[in-house]
Fold this sequence. Notes:
It is a single chain. The chain has 15 helices and two strands. By secondary structure, it is mainly alpha-helical. A two-stranded antiparallel sheet has the order 1-2. Strand 1 (95-96) and strand 2 (99-100) form a beta hairpin. Helix 10 (203-230) runs antiparallel to helix 14. The protein is globular, with a radius of gyration of 18 Å. 41% of the residues are buried.
Amino acid sequence: MTDIIEQIKEYSQKFNCKLPALFVKVDGLERRVVEAMEYSVLNGGKRLRPFLVSECASLFDVGFEQSFMAAASLEMLHSYSLIHDDLPAMDNDDLRRGKPTCHKQFDEATAILAGDGLLTFAFELLAKSDYEDKIKVELIKMLSVAAGAVNGMIAGQMLDLSAEKMKNVQNTEYIIKHIEEMKTGCLLKYAAQAGGVIGGADDNQQNALSVYARKIGVAFQIADDILDMTGSEEIVGKTLKKDENQNKLTFVSCYGVDKAKNMAQNLIAEAKETISVFGGKAKNLQNLADFIIERNY
């Protein structure tokens, strides 16, 4: 466990050192929105999604520098989703990564624009990258689908908001899993598959990466749901027990903590088995799967 935490920290340090150079300095009044974008991206974070891109690419001997732009573009898009998720009209949160959320640090209008800016910036980075045109097009297509309103992250957010207002919900298990698949799972699946695209994975290898990502994606959401109930706000870095207070449908509300934990453990075991086809090269991915459910933040 200690080894993978150090691996993630080491990766995050390298990744974070390169991020500031991606932002263009603006001198006019419009610089406020760029400052809000930088604040939200550079304001800490686990960097699990970029790490996953890098580790999946490394299965095919693709190094940090070559996978960086795909990882950075994903982090821009992920950060946009967090800004919008925290807005008063959405989850209405004041704390993110241990600091004031974007709309609290700046204002609501600036936060909305900062999110919009990061969403578009993600695709700009891919378009300007040094990847071959075929790879660029594939990455842009995959990321737009993963983030979109048709079985993508936006669809998941809409379903999550709608589920809060439902009374006497039927098929809660299906709804919870469908929310996770779109809201959380799509970007994790993209991260794994993006690494495969950069590395030239064949169909069988991409399928293994996809299945692995889906398994850890569900487990990741279960761990988040459990942390919301039992975690330390200081360590987690965001307001806790909001799911219960807002009557949200979660894996914990549906199954209880113990059963949800067992589900997560089974999913991690299956994920590790799936990725074993890559042999010793998948050591960090195996350890990452364990970290997903053993983390306290």
